[in-house]
Design brief:
Length: about 230
């Protein structure tokens, strides 16, 4: 069985690819044009998820280990010694002493996730997307030169994914990429703050394991990914 971090990464990459395909379908419906899937942005979003999910998984694991969501009940008492006269009532009392939600830790985790985590993810997303789009722009130029303006899976095959020329790093103007990332940071942050704090709270309060939280976050990211694809034109 694959480690949880591997399963979470694969799940998130698949969901990211689906979100981009759905965004392309929505755009085609809105513009009244036939749906022809462009594999390049699908690849870009899936690749970003493959790279960003492991550090995010470790970040959530760090938050949970540092600020546990649940702790022993405040009313819990030490277990009586075996054979004592209080031993008979120990089992029912232990059953009632269920873990309690640590509200302080939950608030701290949410604040850290929506400030430090949000800032890092937003900047890295913008840098990656603007950088890889410039690095893969030659695929569109080659397709137009060949007279194939449509973006079809069959037209490109897997060559552009597997070839050494898939991404031309020399074509990336990093000063331009950084300027674009700075320019859109607050707009993306404000949009995220309308959505992700609620997801974080639900995760921290109702979901106990980091693996399950990663899945919930990935499913919530399906809608967020569609939004990002639409607002960034990809």
């Amino acid at each position: 069985m694959a480690p949880p971090i591997v399963s979470a990464t694969i799940q998130t990459a698949i969901i990211s690819a689906i979100s981009n395909i759905l965004a392309q379908a929505i755009t085609a419906h809105q513009t009244g044009t036939p749906l022809i899937i462009d594999p390049i942005p699908v690849f870009q979003y899936a690749l970003f998820s493959l790279l960003s999910t492991p550090p995010n998984f470790l970040w959530q694991d760090f938050l949970e280990s540092t600020f546990p969501a649940y702790g022993p009940s405040a009313s819990a008492a030490p277990a009586p010694a075996a054979g004592s006269k209080d031993a008979k009532g120990a089992a029912p009392a232990a059953a009632e002493a269920r873990p309690r939600l640590n509200k302080r830790n939950t608030v701290v985790k949410t604040l850290l996730d929506q400030t430090v985590g949000m800032a890092a993810n937003t900047v890295l997303f913008s840098l990656f997307m603007h950088g890889i789009r410039q690095g893969m722009a030659h695929h569109y130029a080659a397709r137009e030169a060949a007279g194939d303006g449509d973006a079809r899976f069959g037209g490109l095959g897997l060559g552009f994914l597997l070839g050494s020329d898939a991404v031309r790093y020399r074509d990336v103007a990093w000063a331009s990429v950084w300027a674009k990332a700075k320019g859109e940071f607050w707009d993306l942050a404000k949009a995220g703050w309308r959505f992700w704090p609620l997801v974080s709270l639900v995760n921290y309060v109702f979901v106990t394991s980091v693996e399950a939280r990663s899945l919930v976050g990935a499913l919530a990211g399906l809608g967020w990914g569609i939004y990002l694809c639409l607002v960034t034109g990809q």
